[in-house]
Amino acid sequence: MIALVGCAPSQGWQRTGLRTCASAGPPRVCVDADPDRPLRFTVGGAALVPGECVDAPRARGGQVRIAVADGRSGAQAARWIRAPRGRVTRVEVRAGEVRIRPGGRTRCDQAPAIDE
User: Most buried one in 43, 53, 90, 91, CB count within 10 A?
Assistant: First the structure.
């Protein structure tokens, strides 16, 4: 069996405040931290803080690199995650660690991308 794994765009991601997204639209990645603390995420060239989301520049899913830096301790972590087209991928960093964890995916046409 041969598996082909593509890459989502590595640059040009844009922050978004939109609560919904199209089912055939670009991948969206949302970042969070529990508890909220001074973290800085980088996804596809865009800088984010916990609670923000970014959209890929075009509707092509695949792997994207996410990095996080803790503003207090200086600790850093990075990993590649799968960001499918037409889905919201959530990632989080939990209390006491600087490690990126997948937080789940939802289809864009099912629920708001950002919980309030």
Answer: 43
Predicted pLDDT of residue 103: 86
The partner residues of 88 in beta bridges, in order of sequence, read 28, 106
C-alpha 40/C-alpha 56 separation (Å) is 18
- Rounded CA-CA distance 36/11 in Å is 26
Segments of the chain scoring below 70 in pLDDT: 1-10, 110-116
**CA 49 → CA 30, 34, 38, 92, distances in Å?**
10, 12, 8, 11
| pLDDT at site 25 | 92
| Tokens encoding 33 | 């931290």
Starting at the edge strand that comes first in sequence, how are the strands of the sheet with 39-43 ordered?
46-48, 39-43, 62-70, 76-83
| Domains of the chain (ranges, CATH numbers) | 24-107 (2.60.40)
Six-digit token string for 39: 């973290």
How far is 100 from 88, CA to CA, in rounded Å?
16
